[in-house]
Write a structure and sequence with these properties.
Number of helices of chain B: 12
Distance between the termini of chain A: 26 Å
Largest sheet of chain A: 5 strands, antiparallel
CATH architecture of the largest domain in chain A: Orthogonal Bundle
Helix content of chain A: 25-40%
Helix content of chain B: 40-55%
Shape of chain B: globular
Radius of gyration of chain B: 19 Å
CATH superfamily of the largest domain in chain B: Nitrile hydratase alpha /Thiocyanate hydrolase gamma
CATH topology of the largest domain in chain B: Nitrile Hydratase, Chain A
CATH architecture of the largest domain in chain B: Alpha-Beta Complex
Oligomer: heterodimer
Strand content of chain A: 15-25%
CATH superfamily of the largest domain in chain A: Nitrile hydratase, beta subunit
CATH class of the largest domain in chain B: Alpha Beta
CATH topology of the largest domain in chain A: Cyclin A, domain 1
Number of domains of chain A: 2
Largest sheet of chain B: 2 strands, parallel
Shape of chain A: globular
Radius of gyration of chain A: 20 Å
Number of strands of chain B: 4
Number of strands of chain A: 5
Structural class of chain B: mainly alpha
């Protein structure tokens, strides 16, 4: 979707303003937000792609003003409601009002080291050989789906060069919507800044994205 | 003149007025934790364990050890280039948001910079949790179109003829920048070298420290 999250090349956000010796958390609720988000991820009811799409669906005005942990919490509430684990009414009330479905897994303290150390690999085998090789010229497709995609707007309809075949991975655009993992080859594709930004682009700059096979056309 | 910190505070004061449900995040998140705990869906002790992990065990010191080893050991450096996930795992750094690692090496010709324009993808296993600026619109929007102005805000100025390569983490690969080894560090062991490797130098918004500036 062309949501507020797709920020590459937008302007007007002011200086980056790094904070010297920044703490990991700026408030206690951020610690809890991290832990709750990861704990709910352990239910096994949704994967990262669906979480990302829920975050993209935070309304633009709110998304751009919110801290990232706030975006996480807003999206988490959407996911909890969608999958029946908690209702808006319960979150308002601050208490359980109905029995939830039983998740595949409830994360306990003892499980945390193992779960974090394993992570969630999303490489998957595919039966076909990669369509492109390093050095191939390709063009990204131009599309504007209302659904989840990982092809940023700035890199649509652009010519670039495949730099590496990176393996085959769960296809985010499908998996975010429960259409299955449908793994595809992923390639690193490099663009000259001039191809992306046109007049006045920094001639010393190249930008790469990691693109699923179906984002690309041969040129 | 802009005062960055003043701007930041100003933004902070304002962003609490836009939606009453989220005007008090402390209360909102406490409510969520209570509901989920009452339902038996989460374990508050697991949350404590997660927080402790990222406050004390998984942070940029991990990445600094990877870089220091790559500087010291050409065999490891080659392995890191060929199979970063395995090379990094050999030092014990694995797991969440480090499942599929790539290491990109700065050279005198090319400087690498990592961003996630679409969300906040970051190599947690080697760098820990991302700083606020990495997840915020200013960095995510400008890194891909005008990285030199971004670098200037980190007090980094590269020669005009240095090429800049920006890696937008749009899929599940996570990138670790291996900064150039500073001069005057020939005699240093890996432990001392790791002290020169800042978090920002492994994102590409900084350079490794000169030995006299070691922290």
């Amino acid at each position: 979707m062309n949501g507020p999250h797709d920020l590459g090349g937008q302007m007007g956000f002011g200086p980056v303003a790094p904070e010297p010796d920044e703490p990991y958390f700026h408030a206690n609720w951020e610690k809890r937000a991290l832990g709750i988000t990861l704990s709910c991820g352990a239910f096994g009811a949704w994967m990262i792609d669906e979480s990302r799409h829920a975050r993209e669906n935070v309304p633009p005005g709110d998304y751009l003003k919110a801290s990232y942990y706030e975006i996480w919490i807003r999206a988490l509430e959407t996911l909890l409601e969608r999958h029946g684990f908690a209702t808006a009414q319960e979150i308002e009330a601050g208490h359980k009002l109905q029995e939830p479905p039983r998740p595949k897994r409830v994360l306990t303290a003892e499980m945390v080291p193992g779960v974090l150390a394993r992570g969630g690999p999303c490489d998957r085998p595919v039966a076909t050989a990669p369509r492109f090789a390093a050095g191939d010229r390709v063009r990204t497709r131009n599309f504007n789906p209302e659904t989840h995609t990982r092809l940023p707007r700035y890199a649509r309809g652009k010519s670039g060069v495949v730099e590496a075949v990176q393996g085959s991975f769960v296809f985010a655009d499908d998996n975010a919507h429960g259409r299955g993992e449908n793994p595809q080859w992923v390639y690193t594709v490099v663009f000259d800044a001039g191809e992306i930004w046109g007049e006045g682009a920094d001639p010393s700059l190249t930008v790469s994205i990691d693109a699923w096979d179906s984002y690309l056309e041969r040129v | 003149m802009h005062n960055h910190h003043q701007d930041h505070d100003h933004d902070h004061d304002h962003h609490h007025h836009h939606d009453n449900r989220y005007s008090d995040m402390q209360a909102r998140v406490r409510s969520l934790e209570t509901v989920l705990t009452e339902k038996g869906l989460i374990d508050p002790a697991a949350i404590d364990a997660i927080v402790e992990t990222y406050e004390t065990k998984v942070g940029p010191r991990n990445g600094a050890r990877v870089v220091a080893k790559a500087w010291s050991d050409p065999g490891f450096s080659d392995w890191l280039k060929q199979d970063a996930t395995a090379a990094i795992a050999s030092l014990g750094f694995t797991g969440r948001q480090g499942e599929h690692m790539r290491a990109v090496f700065n050279t005198p010709e090319t400087h690498n910079l990592v961003v996630c324009t679409l969300c906040s993808c970051y190599p947690w296993a080697v760098l820990g949790l991302p700083p606020v600026w990495y997840k915020a619109p200013a960095y995510r929007s400008r890194a891909v179109i005008d990285p030199r102005s971004v670098l200037a805000e980190f007090d980094v100025t590269l020669p005009e003829d240095t090429k800049i390569r920006v890696w937008d983490s749009t899929a599940e690969l996570r990138y670790l920048v291996v900064p150039m080894r500073p001069s005057g560090t020939e005699g240093l062991d890996e432990e001392k070298l790791a002290d020169l490797v800042t978090r920002d130098s492994m994102i590409g918004t900084g350079l490794a420290l000169a030995p006299e500036n070691a922290r």
